Amino acid sequence: MDAGTLMSTAIRSDWYPVHIVRDESEAIERLVHDLDGRRAAIVTDDIVAARHARRLAETLATRGVSVSMTSFPPGEANKSISTAIGLLDWLAGSEVRRRDVVVAVGGGVVIDTVGWVASAYMRGVPYINVPTTLLADVDAALGGKVAVDHDSAKNLIGGFYQPKAVVTNIGYLDTLDDRQLRAGLAEAIKKGIIASPDLFELIESEREQILARDPDTLRRLVHGASAVKCRLIERDPYELDLARPLNLGHTVGHALETVTGYGPVLHGEAVAIGIVTAAQIAERRGLLDRESLCRFVDLLARVELPTSLPGLAVEVDPAAVVAALGQIRKIRDGSLRFVLPTALGEVVIADDVADREIQIALDEFAGSRR
Ligand SMILES: NC(=O)c1ccc[n+]([C@@H]2O[C@H](COP(=O)([O-])OP(=O)(O)OC[C@H]3O[C@@H](n4cnc5c(N)ncnc54)[C@H](O)[C@@H]3O)[C@@H](O)[C@H]2O)c1
Ligand SMILES: [Zn+2]
């Protein structure tokens, strides 16, 4: 090091509890404890406000917590910089101070947006996630990836900012519509395939109880899936390594969402097709046996997730998906990473999957299944 160079170091380590509780009264106990006397600034969307968050805010107030609340319209279109600015304005006009806590109550849209706002306000105020969709329970609420979308790309503006705590109340899933529940299940099945035969088998054997929203079964499911995510992100919390098993189904999934314009196909539905495609490619390469491929596809189909392009709510041309993947390949310096399952609980990463293999895989199940 020459005489003019100094080294500045900033090391930070974050840890947080993930409480998975059965009902709102248990959630309130956890929140009161984790708020630790601080003011709570609850942010939610309009649907979740009416269903749950308003009642939650009122009950917290009866427990002596100083609470303020705001909401924004639901939907991916509102995971935006303008929503974030509106929330920053709201915080700036409120009594929320550096040590007070922003509480995100909602699905992934609320959680991603609010996390990013919390990271920016006063250079970072603590926030607690209270997820209300299955997708947010097992995925978005964990890991501190916070972002809003830009017209040119999803999640373009964001960062990593870990929550102070996550309070997951299974009871909130009672009001979630079936399609959203199934979309969340796709992410749970993915976690089983990449890292947890136990989780996969739980979904296989308790499928009906899960779809009927039996609280104990849902709690086991959310616990198992959350544990897989926590374990995997701990190894690489800032995604320095792009070869991540958690991306199973997401290469083709993202292309499908791009082609359909982020809306008509839910993220979990796109991921379901992405999983089938990856498993299909793996089987053709001789990496995965046919029996495992069928087992994966069967479970997705049994929970009524689409497993082929014709199973989607909108018509999609396989060639358009391959073309979108070509664009993604270009942006990523010519290489597309595929997570390929090799057995239940095991995957490999491949960066040499050819367009033709993808095309064959997309065509393979077309018409034969939902
Ligand atoms: N940060 C991450 O690591 C991560 C991971 C996965 C997904 N995400 C993000 O999550 C977002 C998708 O999240 P989502 O699937 O939860 O969608 P969402 O937040 O749009 O919620 C789906 C719909 O369900 C409604 N809703 C939420 N909870 C409800 C409840 N309990 N009862 C009735 N209705 C309810 C919402 O108002 C909304 O209309 C995407 O933007 C995605 O990028 C982030
Ligand atoms: Zn996902």
Structure characterization notes:
The chain has two domains: 18-175, Rossmann fold (3-Layer(aba) Sandwich); 178-364, Dehydroquinate synthase-like, alpha domain. It has a six-stranded parallel β-sheet with strand order 1-8-5-4-2-3, sandwiched between helices. Strands 6-7 form a two-stranded antiparallel sheet. Strands 9-10 form a two-stranded antiparallel sheet. The protein is α/β, with parallel strands linked by helices. 46% of the residues are buried. The protein is 49% helix and 15% strand. α5 (134-140) runs parallel beside α6 (178-195), α10 packs across α13 (318-331) and α11 packs across α14. Zinc ion (ZN) binds next to α11.
The main sheet comes to: 6 strands, parallel
CATH topology of the largest domain: Dehydroquinate synthase-like, alpha domain
The rounded distance between the terminal residues' Cα atoms is 63 Å
Placed side by side, the strands forming the largest sheet appear as 1-8-5-4-2-3
Primary descriptors:
Dehydroquinate synthase-like, alpha domain; alpha/beta; Rossmann fold; binds zinc ion; 15% strand; 10 strands; binds nicotinamide-adenine-dinucleotide; two-stranded antiparallel ribbon
